[in-house]
Amino acid sequence: MERDQCEKQMAAMKEAFMLFDTDGDGRIAPSDMGVIMRTLGANPTQAQLRNMEVQEDLRSPLGLARFLDLMFKYMKPEDSAEAELRDAFRVIDKEST
To answer: 44-67 burial, b if ≥16 CB within 10 A, otherwise e?
Structure first.
């Protein structure tokens, strides 16, 4: 089950990367990291994002491998009970209100 969850997270990360790679050059802007992380369920603060930029020296566009490394390093694994609860609410609240 844990491996399956990891594979799902990896697929979601790759899909998000491709969506933000608007020109198809295989790279995204470091400034997109916060939006992508939030899209995938994390909630980093601006201070945390700035800290990541400084610690990781994010000045140039990121390729997929670097992006995935950063995502796994900075995204906290989602608690499975929390994920199940969130999924249950999505079934009930189809309009995400």
So the answer is: beeeebeebeeebebeeebeeebb
What is the rounded end-to-end Cα distance, in angstroms, of the chain? 30
Length of the chain as a residue count:
97
- Predicted TM-score of the model (pTM): 0.71
pLDDT digits (tens, 9 = 90+) for 22-42: 999 999 999 999 999 999 988
Using DSSP, how many helices (H) and how many strands (E) does the chain show?
A: 5, 2
Nearest to 71 by CA among 21, 30, 25, 24: 30
Domains of the chain: 2-92 (1.10.238.10)
Instruction: Give the span between the Cα atoms of 41 and 44, in whole angstroms.
Output: 10
What number of other Cβ atoms are within 10 A of residue 29's Cβ?
Answer: 13
- Calculate the alpha carbon distances from 45 to 49, 50, 70, 76 in Å: 6, 9, 16, 13
